[in-house]
Specification:
The structure is a single chain. This protein has one domain (about 5-245): NAD(P)-binding Rossmann-like Domain (Rossmann fold, 3-Layer(aba) Sandwich), CATH 3.40.50.720. The chain is of the alpha/beta class. The chain has 7 helices and 7 strands; from the N terminus they run βαβαβαβαβαβααβ. The longest helix is centred in the middle third of the chain and has 22 residues, at about 110-130. Helix 1 runs parallel beside helix 2 and helix 1 crosses helix 7 (about 220-230). A 7-stranded parallel β-sheet has the order 3-2-1-4-5-6-7, with helices on both faces. Helix 1 (about 15-25) links the parallel strand 1 and strand 2 (about 30-35). The chain has helices at about 15-25, 40-50, 70-85, 110-130, 155-175, 200-210, 220-230; strands at about 5-10, 30-35, 55-60, 90-95, 135-145, 180-190, 240-245. The chain starts with 5 loop residues before the first strand and ends in a 6-residue tail after the last strand.
Amino acid sequence: MTSPSIIVITGGSRGIGAATALEAARRGLGVILTYHRHPDAARAVIRQIEGRGGRAAALSLDVGDSASFPTFRAAVDEVLASRWQATQLAGLVNNAGHGLFNPIATVTEAQFDGLMNVHLKGPFFLTQALLPLLRDGASIVNLTSATTRVATAGVAPYAAFKGGLEVLTRYMAKEFGERRIRVNAVSPGAIRTELGGGLNDEFEALLAAQTALGRVGEPEDVARVIASLLTEDSGWINAQSIEVAGGYVI
């Protein structure tokens, strides 16, 4: 009997993470999604997946608290066994994050550290913690940002750590290659989510005008690319950063 393919998606209760959970489940993957402050939203995603015939589970995780990762790994072990009678993961999506819109002159050290912990330190040590559970040939997808390419005033720390995660992606691909674990980054442009407080009409119009395809993206636009990278459809794509932005500022 073929073993089930199960993935972990951090920050899977809303936005790109939730859309990715739904798309991955549609493609037949089992989904373990994490949430931090929104358990009801996570449960709603689970209900949607199960309503469509998929299988999923939700676990609490603060990606900014690396000390909690051994406990989280144990929880993943338990849910793999109880929900799927499995011991391994087929993929990991490092998606969880939050935004900050502050010029460099006013960013506090606490804000800086909070962004670093979630967007760079967290993915580094969470991947390390879950690596023994990833089966050979698994896929890791790190969510970065088009702000690493297009400088946008007010998001310097966020963009800097996303840039670090993009570099880390290549190093992960290099070091995990012996196990045929592929590691890629997906870099969204302007997407209609709640990150950073969302988009008002004026800001959305500005971003759409700077995008070749004439609109901002939807979470589903990004989710389809992430889900593809988790499957054998993208089995020869590795160590890449793929911008999913509709042609933003070209």
